[in-house]
Amino acid sequence: MSTGTKAYAKRHMRMYILIVLLITGQMGIFPAVSAAAGNLAQGKSITASSVGDVYTAGNANDGNQGTYWESASNAFPQWIKVDLAANSSVNQVVLKLPSGWESRTQTLSVQGSTNDSSYSNLAASSSYVFNPAAGGNTVTINFTAATARYIKINFTANTGWPAAQISELEVYGSAVTTPGTYEAEAAALSGGAKTNTDHSGYTGSAFVDGYLAQGASTAFTVTAGGAGNYDASIRYANATGSAKTISIYVNGTKIRQTALPNLANWDTWGVKSETLTLNAGTNTIAYKYDPSDSGNVNLDQLVLTASSTPTASPTVAPTIAPTPVPTVAPTATPTPTPTVAPTPTATVTPAPTATPTTGPSSNLAIGKAVNASSSVFTFVPANANDGDVTTYWEGAGGSYPNTLSVNLGANAYITSVVVKLNPASVWATRTQTIEVLGHNQNNTSFSTLVPAAAYTFNPATGNSVTIPVTATASELQLKFTANTGSSAGQVAEFQIFGTPAANPDLTITGVSWNPAAPVETDNITLSAVVKNTGTTASAATNVNFYLGAALAGTAQVGTLAAGASGNVSVNIGAKDAGTYAASAKVDESNTVIELNEANNSYTSPSSLTVVPVSSSDLIAGAVSWSPGNPAGGNIVTFTAAIKNQGTTASSGGAHNITLTLTDAATNAVIKTLTGSYSGVINSGVTTAPVTLGTWTAVNGKYNVKTQIAVDGNELPVKQANNTETRPLFIGRGANMPYDMYEAEDGVTGGGAVKLAANRNIGDLAGEASGRRAVTLNTTGSYVEFTTRASTNTLVTRFSIPDSASGDGINSTLNIYVNGVFTKSINLTSKYAWLYGSETSPGNSPGAGSPRHIYDEANIMFDSTIPAAARSVCRRMLPIRHSMPSTLSVWSR
C-alpha cells in the first residue's frame, strides 16, 4: 500500500483529531444508529468479491475500526456481503474507515436479498464522503425498512485508492421472528448460563453458553394454542468431539435427557427435536445441565410447532411356548472372559417365527449407522450389521442395560426384527432378555415397540431369534438386561425387515454451464437438473455448486413432487483460465429426510475449461537486490524485470516500473525507485533486468513492492497481478517470525528494578538473555512494552524463586492491554531450578549453587492485539505482577 494514500498524520495532528472527535461525539454530531437492535452484522459470515494483500473480508465486521477490508486494486466493480444468518428487518447501514485515514469519496450502493440469489436495491448508487474530521470517517446510510438476510455493498469508485475499502460494515434493524420462535438470549438464564456472541451463525442478537457446570439452565416461556403434543426444536452447537447430553423440563418436571450430536465446529448449528406434551396457554420449557448430563453445549433458539408425530402402533406380545433344554453345553464360549455355560432349566421363550419371505420386505439394517451404549475389546457395534455372523458385538461386562441401535435414516414400515448369534456349535445355548424400542424420523425419543422378554438362542436351531414388530420407525434399538451366556448383551447380526416408507429422494441428473466455452472475461452460469426419484414430495432446499473442491455458489430449489425435475442456476462470475471439475450436491446439509442420502452428488463427466483471454499480461519478473543478504550500512542495488505471461504481445513504448520500500511494521515509505523498459514485449518473454536505483541499508524488516504500469494491450482482468510484494530483512542473525522484547528495554514502574549487567552463573542478570533483567518484587510493580507488530500470542522468559525442597512454587503475571486487564499467565519454578556442577546438576537446593533459574510460559490472547502504529493512540502492554519474580524476554 502506498502510504501517500494511507499514511497517518504526525503525532500531534493525530492527537488533535482525536480531541476533536471526542468533543464532537459528546455533542451528538455523529449520525445515530437505529435503536431497534444492535449491530446485526457483528461476527456474522462475511465474504467479498476479492481481497487485496492481507486485508480480508473478516476485518470488516470484527468490531475493530483499525482493521479493514480492501479489494483487489484497479478492478472495479467490487462488493462485500454479510450473511445475517436469518431474515431481518433492516433500515440502516453504517460504513467506517480507520479514523486516522485522510478524507476520500467512495461510490457505492446497498442491496439486500433473502436468498443470496435475487438482490434488490435498498439504497441506490451514490457517492459518500468519508471524512475523519467530520464523522470519524463514518458514513450512515438510511433507507426504507426491508426484509433481508444478505446485505451487499457494491463499490464502483474510490478517490483515495483504486480499490474498495471498509473497516466496519454495520447493519441495523431488528430480527424477524417467526411464530413459535423463541430466542435463547431472551429466555430466563440461571446456574451460570449466559449470553455470548463469539461464534458466528447464531440467530437473534446472541446465543447462550455457560453449560460448563451443573445447574446451568435456559428456561423458555412458550405459548401453546391448546393442550397436546408439540415438537420442540432446539438449535444448538457442539464441537467437543462427541455427543453431549442435557435434560428437558416442562413446567418444572423433568421429562427426559436428550443427546445433542457432535458438529463440525462451534460456528455450525444443528437442530434437535423432541415431542413434548404442553398445557393450553403459557408453559415453560427448560434445558438444564443435570448431574447425570455431560453439558458443554451452546443454545441459540427454540422453535415450537404442533406435533405431527404418529403414535407407534401397539405390538402384541409373542405367544410363548417352552423351549427344550440342550443336553450338552460346549466347553468353549467365545466371550472376552471365559464363561461356563450353566445347565439351563426350562425357560419360557417366544415361539420361533419364520424369517420374512423374499419379496418387497428386505433387511434394511445392513450397512446402516449402528451404535451401542458400550462395547468390549474388538467386539464393536459395526460387527452387528456387517452381514457376517462370525463377527459380533458385545457390551461391556456388568453394565446393564446394554443398548444396540441401528439408524435407517428414514422411516420404514417394520414387520420384524431378527437377532442372530454365530450358529457354530462352540457357542453354548443362552437366553437373553431383550426389549425392542424405536422412534420415527420426526423425533429422537425411543418408545417401546415390543416389551422385554426372554429369548433363547440355540445353535441347533440356527442361533437366531425373530421378533415380530409392527411399527413405522427410522431407528430401532435393542435393550438387553440379562444374558445367561455372558455378563452383557451379544449380537452377531441385527436385522430389520420391512419396506421403506414414503419419502422423497433428491438426485442431480446433470450439470452444465453457459457459455459452453468461456474465456476469462465471461460471466459463467452453472446449472443443474434436480430430480425427486422418491415416493413423496420433497421440501425446498438448495444445491451447492463446486469447481474442484471449492464452493462456487449456491442455488435454491423449491418443492418437487415425486418423480418431478427442476432446473437451478447460479452465476459464479468470471474465472481464471484453467480446467475445473464441475459438480453439484443437492441438500448437502441433509435438511430433507430422504430414502437415500448417498446419491445427492453429481460430477460432470466433462470438465469446465476457461480459455485465456487474448491480452498481454505484465507481471514483475525477476525482482532482486544486491547484495542478496545485505547488512546495515551496505549499498543495496535493486533490479526488476518484466514478464509478459499473456497470450499477445505488449504495446510498444516505455513500460514503467515503480519499486516502493516500506517499513513492515508501520507501512511508512522508506524509498521509492523507478525505471522503465522500452519496446514490445512478446508473449512469454521476460525482459533483461532493469536497474532501479540504490538504498543504504538500515537494520529492520521491510516490504519491497514492485508495480508494473498497465500496458495498452492489457485488459482489466489481467491487471490485478501487476504488483508484487516481497519481504526484506536487514539485521543480525536469522529473520524469525516473531518479535523479541528485552525487559530492560521496557518502561518500568511500581517498584520494578532494572538489574545491572553481569555474567555470573546463577545470578538473575547473569542468566538472562541480555545479561540484564527486571525484577518485580512488589505487588503492582510492572514492566511495559509497545508492540511493533500485531500479535495474538505471548511467550515470557521468567524466573521465580524455588521452594526450599526444590519442588517449585506457582505464581501468575497479570497482563493489561491499554490499562485494561486482559489475561493472566501462569508461572511455575517446578521445572526450572537446577543446582550443583555443570556436568551433573541436581534438583535439590542442597546439591550446590543454582545454575538454571529461568523457564518460559506462553498464552494465546482471545483477540489480536494490533501494532501501535496502526491505531490513533499507542497501544501498550503493561504487565503487573502479584508476587516477586524476574522478567527477561517477552516475545510473540
Please explain how this structure is put together:
This protein has 892 residues and is mainly β. The protein has two helices and 61 strands. Strands 22, 23, 25, 26, 27, 28 and 30 form a seven-stranded antiparallel beta sheet that branches. Strand 4 (104-113) and strand 5 (120-130) form a beta hairpin. The longest helix is centred in the N-terminal third of the chain and has 16 residues, at 11-26.
What is this structure, in a nutshell?
By secondary structure, this protein is mainly beta. It contains two helices and 61 strands.
For the structure shown, list the relevant keywords:
892 residues, mainly beta, 7-stranded antiparallel sheet, 6-stranded antiparallel sheet, globular, disordered N terminus, disordered C terminus
